Structures are given as structure tokens and as C-alpha cells.
Amino acid sequence: MTFGNDVSAIGDLSRSGQGSLVPSMAETQGWSSDPRSCAPKRAALAVSMLPANEPLASVSYVSSGNLLVIGGDERALACAERLAAALPVTLLLTSRPSAQAALLGGASLEADFPIWGAKVARLEGYLGRFVAQLESLAVIRGHDRALPAAARTEFDLVVDFSDPPLFGHHTPPQGYWRVTDEDSLALALAEAPECVGDFEKPRFFDYRENLCAHSRSGIEGCNRCIDVCSTEAISSVGDKVVVDPHLCMGCGACASVCPSGAMSYVFPRLPDRGVQVRAMLAAYREAGGTDPCFLLHNGTDGREALEELVAGGTGLPDNVIPLEAWHVASSGIDLLLGAFALGANRVAVLAAGSEAPEYRESLREQFALAETIVQAFGYAGRHFLVVSTPGELVGLDPAQGVSVPASFALSADKRTAVEFAVDHLARHAPVRPAEIALPAGSPFGQVVVDVKKCTLCLACAGACPESALMDGGETPALRFLERNCVQCGLCENTCPEEAISLAARLVVGPAARQVRVLNETQPFHCLSCGKPFGTKRMVDTMMGRLAGHSMFAGGDALRRLQLCADCRVVDMMSNKNEVSVLKL
To answer: Which residue in 424, 415, 524 sits closest to 465, CA to CA?
Structure first.
């Protein structure tokens, strides 16, 4: 389990940012082989405490230890019997009835626990609240023989011997153990008896629905957080996404890939991490350090990899400053560019192997995007790296950083944090391009409108969740604010004329903050009262499409299309030849 009966240990990690409560000697020396040569790094680590922040909301679990063991062979039977000494256990045999009879006939069971035979149609939930939907249920041994053949049963814990496992995704919920070998069996036997009581963990994320670009009116836009989540904690419900905090393990990948900042990571919050990074870099420079590189790593296999490097006699280079994170997948472009603007010449993340494949891919995309931006400004060298071993940082050539480190605080708003960093990099850059080409799918770019197709219906503006597309106010026009565009595709998917396409890029400077007109046309005035009620292009298009329709064969019907809503009603009521249900 990754949490205990309270969150004290996790809270201390949040305050220190450096992992264990009692740092090892290697850690205090920056995981370097020779502490005498890394005084600047040690100075940085001495001020690495995260600032005190607001308490985090917590997520609660309650478990009575009611355990379901699922399997069909002697391993599941032996596991159930061993755990029955400490927990209320139910054994669910999923093998054929003949195999069940053979298994139980040759067994000498000392513990008294219920044994069922069934197929598991569905298993969902988390510690303290697992729900199993069972089919063909039969009570083989136990006090309750009145269970229906199809039943919905609830348990606090699950040990699963199924092949394939009932939870097949990379990170199953807490309170669930899938047994595939002797090591995973030993882990289940050791941890399950400890999972009785009340538990808490932090709520690792914040979600602002008003910024979410997932969907509008049933039209799909951004699915990045859903696609990247290895715990399947995020799902689509209508036009929004919903996160089950009990399933969330705090990786932060959803926040790192979110283009709008609707999903944000709070363990720690970006402004607090920015304060920490700025203080560490200042101390490093004051102590005479050059070419600073931050190495983000986790406290499990990442820390073990650092220990192995030191034990092998190599250690981290003197300019590599280790910085522990709850999960490295939370490293997004806002942190990368922010740290670079604050004076880190390089930022690396150690993906030592425990990360889900989705996370390694999302990290590479974030780091590649940050590198594209920095390289476009003319900063030489490799600035953002994803490494699988810390030894990959040994012997790297220096990377060029900003000549003047930024002094601003990193904003809690993702887009603002990136904008501040980019403006600072541009101000001190060797090269300053007007715009930077980015790969397709990047969260920055423009909307391109084919004015020959666009009728200015403004459906795109209504679908835009970020107010990047806007109407023209009193004039028929489509306006665009590029700094707000997250390239979610909702406008493109909504447009009935297929007149919209996206082009990823990053505009540098004030141009990104200036509203520009993408299309405009003459207003169409009502033939009766003269009031403007649409665009000339839209009415002309409508007239052209409906001219051959039988309902508009007469001149009056076509003329009525050129009237405003009020005059159209008046015309219908005053036309004696108009068909009405009142005359039927």
C-alpha cells in the first residue's frame, strides 16, 4: 500500500520535496561520489524545503477487511486459508465444477471460510468498496446457501489469481492484488492483513470544469486526460470529465497533458514548486555553481537507481541537482519552461521503469515540446531529457541557459505560467522568431477559416470553451484570440460547413494577445422592417439550398426567409393563403 492510517508521511514529503524523513548520507551529498566537489549542489539542497501551503483536501477509505480471493487452483485455496486466520475471507472458485470438486476433495482445510463457485462478470471499486457482479453463482461451502445465481456482492479487499487479471490496466486500485508469481503472492499475504481500518490520502488534483475542452453538445474535443490515466480514474460523463479521487494515485499526468489547465496538480502546487526551484537555483549560483541541471525522480525505483549509482562509485555529476517528486509524470511544460526561465540550464526526469507506458510517452511529448520552443530561441544544447538511468547524465556537454534568470513566481494557471516563461526566454534569447512551428497536437496554435465556406453561423464560437473564438458584437464577424486557443478541435468538429482547420504554432510576443478578425461579412437586413438579423452570405446560402424544395416553390415562402423572426410571424398570420392547423 502507498499510504497508511494518516497522511503524515505524505505531508512531510510535500513539505520537504526530498523524500524520506531521515535523508541518507548520499542524499544530503546530492547523490555524488565526492561531497567535497559539489558544494554548490549541497547549498541548493540546504534550501530545498517547499514553502508552507494550504492544507490539501483528503480522500477517505474505510475497510473492515472483508476479503474476496478469486481463483481456480490450489494457490488461491492456500492463499484463502492463510489469510482466513487474520481476515474474514470468501474464496470464489472460477474453475469448472468438476475441477472445483477435485480441488476441494483433495484438500484438508483447517480454517472455516465460505467457498463459492461463480463467474465474475464485472469487478469495480477500490479499497473498502469493491463490487463484484457474479454469474452462475453456487455456494459450495458456507452458511448462506440462498444467494441467487446472479448476484452483486461487495467486499473491502480483493486478491485476484485470474489470468488475465480482472483489473488489467497498469495501476489497479488500492486494496486489490493481482497474483502472477511468488513475489506478488508474498506481497498480497503481507499487505492484506494491514488494510483494516480508516485510511486517508491527499486529493492530488483540482479540476475546473469551465476550462475543460473535453466536449460540447455531445461533440468530442480533448480526451488527453482520459487517454493518459493508468488507473482509469477519469471518465467521460456527458460534456465533462469526472475523476474518481479514490482511484487516483497522484501521478499528475492528467495535469501535465491538459492543454487548458482545467486539470491541475496540487502535490505540490506549481507556485510552491516554483518558489522551491528559484531558491535552490539562487543558492547554487551564489555558491559558484554553473550549468545547473535538475533531475526529477520518484521515491521508489528512482531513488533506488540513484543509490545504485553512488554504490557503483560514479554518483551524479556535480551540476545535477536531484529533486524528488511524488510522481515524475506530473512534469508538464509549465514546470519545464518555468524552471528553465528561472535559471536551470537543463531539466531531466528519471523514468526508472515503474511508470506506465502512457506516462513515458506523455513525458517524451512534453519534453520534446519544451525543447522545440527553447531551440527555436537559439539556446544551444540539450535542455530537456527523459532518462531511464541516472548514468545517462554523466558526461553531457553543457547546455546554454538564459543570461538573466527570471524572478517572477510561477502561476497556478498553466497557460499564464507558460506565457510568462516564453516572454522571458524571448526577451533574452539569442534568436527571436515571430512564431515557432510546433508538431500537430500541440496545445498552442491558430484556427484557420476558409472564408469561402464560412457562413458566419458562429457555431464554432459557441462551442469554444476557452473564449478563443468570439462573435463580432454588433457586426457579423468571427474574431480570434490566439493566446486562449488550446487546439482542442471542438470548433473544427462543430463547424457544419467544414470551413475550419487547426495549425499548431506558438506566436511570440504581443501578437498572441491581440484579437484579430478571421471572417466578416455584410449584415442582411429584413426586407420588411430593415432590422439586421443575419449575414448576407448566410441568407444567400439558405436561399440557394432551399430554392428547389417543394415547400418553398412559391415566391412568398422564399421571401419569408428574408424576413426577421418578428416580421416572419406577422407575414404568416396576414397571408390568407397560408396553410394553418386552425383551418383544418
So the answer is: 415
Please state whether 120 falls in left (phi above 0), alpha (psi between -120 and 50) or beta.
beta
Under a CB-based contact definition with an 8 Å cutoff, are residues 72 and 39 in contact?
Answer: no
**Cα separation of 297 and 304, whole Å?**
10
Alpha helices in 486-564 (DSSP H): 490-494, 536-546, 555-560
Cα–Cα distance for residue pair 10/266, rounded to 1 Å: 13
Q: Which of 16, 527, 66, 37 is nearest to 318 (CA)?
A: 37
d(CA 231, CA 172): 6
pLDDT one-digit tens code per residue, 431-458: 999 999 999 999 999 999 999 999 899 9
Look-up of cell digits 474464496: 91
- 3-state SS class at 499: coil
Q: How far apart are CA 528 and CA 453, in angstroms?
A: 28
Q: Are 250 and 267 spatial neighbours (Cβ–Cβ below 8 Å)?
A: yes
Take residue 153 and report the three cell numbers written for it.
Answer: 456482492
Best CA proximity match to 120, nearest among 131, 109, 128: 131
Q: What does pTM read for this prediction?
A: 0.86
* CA distance linking residue 317 with residue 390, whole number of Å: 10
* Nearest residue to 401 via CA among 420, 423, 382: 382
Place of cell 457482479: 133
Residue 577 has a CB neighbour count (10 Å cut-off) of: 6
For residues 66 and 129, what is the distance between their CA atoms, to the nearest angstrom?
10
In angstroms, the CA 377 to CA 430 distance is 6
- pLDDT, position 454: 93
DSSP for 217-238? TTEE---HHHHH-TT--EEEET
Distance of alpha carbon 239 from alpha carbon 344, whole angstroms: 40
Name the residue among 341, 501, 364, 489 with its Cα closest to residue 424. 341
Q: Is the distance from CB of 456 to CB of 519 less than 8 angstroms?
A: yes
CA distance 553 to 546: 9
List all residues 6 or more positions away from 183 whose beta carbon is below 8 Å from its beta carbon: none
Domains in the chain and their CATH numbers? 8-50+267-425 (no CATH), 65-195 (3.50.50.60), 204-265 (3.30.70.20), 445-520 (3.30.70.3270), 526-583 (no CATH)
Residue from 272, 268, 125, 129 nearest 204 by CA: 268
Sorted by sequence, the CB contacts under 8 Å of residue 315 that are 6+ apart come out as 26, 31, 32, 33, 34, 309
Which position has the higher pLDDT, 490 or 570?
490
